[in-house]
Amino acid sequence: MNSTWPVLTSLIAYPLVGVLILVFVQKEKWVRVLTLIFGIIEIILALPLLKFKLGSSAFQFQEFHPWITQWQINYHLGVDGISYLMVLLTIILLPLCVLCSWTYIGKRIKEFHICLLLMTSACIGVFVALDFVLFYIFWEAMLVPMFLLIAVWGGPERKYASIKFFIYTLAGSTLLLVAMIAFYKQAGTFSIPELIAKDYPFRFQFWAFLAMAIAFAIKVPMFPFHTWLPAAHVQAPTAGSVLLASVLLKMGTYGFLRFCLSLTPAASVYFAPMMIAISIASIIYGGLVALGQKDMKKLIAYSSVAHMGFVTLGIFIFNLRGAEGALMQMLNHGITTGGLFMLVGAIYERSHSREISANQGLGKFLPAYLFFFGLFSLSSLAFPGTNSFVGEALVLIGTFKKNMLLGLLAIPGALLAAAYMLRLLQKLAWGEPSAAKGQDWNDLSLREWIYLLPLAILVIYLGLAPGLALKTMDASLAKILNHVLVR
Amino acid sequence: MNFKVQFLLPELYLLAIICILFVQSITNSLKSKTKWLPYAAFAGVFVSIISFGQNGYMLYNTYKIDGLSQFFKFVIFLGFAICTANASQNKTIKREHFADYFFFMTLSTFGLLILASTVELFSIYVALELASYSLYVLIPLRNKDAKAAEAGIKYVLFGAVATALGLYGISYIIAGQQTTFIHALAGMSWSWAENPMALIGFGLFLLAFLYKLALFPFHFWCPDVYQGTSNETAAFAATMPKLGAIVVLIRIMALMPGLEVKTIIAIFAALSMTIGNLAALSQKDIKRLLGYSSVSHAGYIMLGLVSGTAYGLSAAAFYGLVYMLMNLTIFWVITRLSSSGRNIYVDDLNGMYHSSPALAFTLAVAAFALVGLPPTAGFTGKLFLLTSAWGQNFNWLVIVGAVNTAIAIYYYLNLVRHAYTVKEVAPLKFTLSPSSTALALLLSIGVLYLGLVPQDIFNWLMKTSHFILS
């Protein structure tokens, strides 16, 4: 069962080795350079993942070692089409996060990079764990470095934001813990593939779904559990915001697919109308609130609520187009919003303000910056040719296929995205410059090009040729949907 | 009388230490020379390991040597060793009182050691008194502190009431069942319908131990006593007597009392978790905070006990070890921080990360373990407890336990937040010896190790629990 080279373990363990090495490094510059090298080596370590078999719904690259045999807890890892792309995204983001924090982080540099490495390790662990306890361990382990990222390197309201983030997500996790124990008692195992293979009475599924769904809804976050998100996003340093938006939020939607749909299919169908209603509420609410924001980061944070609403909508309409769209949108949101947060960080380093009014009229001075901002904004509003168009269109096609009225309800979300993103773009590009200080700002440096370009290439690549990404996920999604619909 | 020396190695070893300390305490020139004690106590851990694997009854069947007793003797010795190492620099008592101080601490430990093996109600009572009386002396031992006297009086008065209730309970059990031997009591009926008097006695006897464990509603003494006594004594009082209480409760709950008793305990447990956590939220004095946190932890331990299965009892025993270790770890940090022996407040932790990263790391590990975050021992221990109670008529208690974890995170996280993220205004002046740092890191490694590799210990406990229940 075990693959010859434990590629997944190496991806989880390697950042931890990096942490151990960093502990003994004193010079700040070397800390940055070494973490960047660690990030690049992590990408090289992930290369064996390219042997992923397309069209297979099975878990691949499995690793299995007994751990606490008394409780049937095992060290069991594996990836399928649902987790594969998320693992790749997490790995790609590590060196980019190091680069975008190069000049942004000025204090406790070593600790900051240790937190980044710990986050990467835990996030990969969440996506590849095939044992419920192992999943929970990684799920919780990721909270501590994220809390520290916000609490130590965050903005002026970091105390409030970090504690709110921690308590909200931990409160959700406790329900997940109860559900986990209930599943163990019901099925006698913590193994996720074995849990998926079993049937559970509806009454059990009903409660288990509710417990898990609240945990995941907080993480996504879905309206009305979203209030921790804007605070955390705004206060977090750039790399923290990027990881939060690109990876952490995906854990919630990943949880819906892996646990709610797979383990409690009947309850998922039963609760689907409620979940769809909340998703649409998230889309509309997130869009409307984003429209009224003056702070760039807050605007993007609220837009995340709306975008993630599309993801959950795609998941709970139970057709392949919707599910494909949801998973694509998970990936897209990671790329696009990550890029946008990096851009906000870059302008904040120049103007020391995230207010739209303080940064407007950049077009004259920073053309390269504006190019990237324009590209990511267009992607965020799902402009055809960009990655988000593919995801959003698939979700909407799936929704219309399910119910015309639902599709019509979701459409205003797409329009709102156009309104708030174009308004932001218009002000930044062509607004009246609020001060002449912009003339002194330098356009993008080579370092900034290096971390923005890969994301920009992904935006266009996935927008024009999403075929390969869709092929990796189709078989696994079809298997889950089949499980739900023939429950 | 069946007497085998090899059965009693840990007890005899500790008795030898007590004798030496007694001689020291009455010899003026030796009173302050107690530096050997932590080493001797650590050696005791190995003595207790040697005594593993023995089984049998002694002393007219009142004293039982089995897996459970030997496991707890090991845990008690480990805790005792850490406590003596922690208290070797006690700033709040004069050096010439060190021998007396450690004499009483060791005597109390001796009581607990006996408690781990006694299986007869009166012997349990005597052992409990031995453990308690020494603590009554230890707790007020703090120079120039009025609160210490208050703490001492509170502990004595509450303790006396609890003891009286326990003794009263024994009399009812004798009246109802005509025996005081636990193995004889095991085969008897404990239902309200058949033997109400025995059940009342059982309930009262339980109370004495619930008091030691500081379970709601017998928790009022706990925060006050911790706050009033010195940091080093608080570390001892917060952990060691609880081990004694847990082992006796495991033996008593293995008697399979009816659902009535279990339900009442479960309700107490739920209230204990919730009230302990809610009260801890507003505490600024860390010892008070830990006092309330221990009230909530007492509730958690009950999860394993009310389930009554081998899993549950093993989970409770395992949590006893985990609780002792994580609590002593956090007390280690507090004691090191307080160079003058004064109480440490949450604000005193500010900027600790800068002054001592190792100590801050230890604090973080201990705090996250107390919350129950993976991969610490606190998580594994709680997972075992919660799993054992699910499906045994106490699903609601599992949910209460899980929700309480979320409440607890606030005040534990606050400690870590102060240590790591808040800038220090006036840094605490403390010097940390290399051995102190090494032991702090060793404790945190222990907390992580038990979280990641609990298998062997748990398997051992499962075997002993099956043995007790069979």
What this model shows, in words?
The complex is a heterodimer of chains A (487) and B (470). Chain A has 487 residues and is mostly helical. In chain A, 75% of the residues lie in helices and 3% in strands. A two-stranded antiparallel ribbon of chain A has the order 1-2. The longest helix of chain A is centred in the last third of the chain and has 32 residues. Chain A is globular, with a radius of gyration of 21 Å. In chain B, helix 4 packs parallel to helix 10 and helix 13 packs antiparallel against helix 15. By secondary structure, chain B is mostly helical. The radius of gyration of chain B is 21 Å and the shape is globular. In chain B, 72% of the residues lie in helices and 1% in strands. In chain B, strand 1 and strand 2 form a beta hairpin.
Low-confidence stretches of chain A: none
Low-confidence stretches of chain B: none
Largest sheet of chain B at a glance? 2 strands, antiparallel
Gyration radius of chain A, in Å: 21 Å
Strand content of chain B: under 5%
Note the main sheet of chain A. Answer: 2 strands, antiparallel
Question: What spatial form of chain B do the alpha-carbon principal axes imply?
Answer: globular
Number of strands of chain B: 2
Order of helices and strands of chain B: HHEEHHHHHHHHHHHHHHHHH
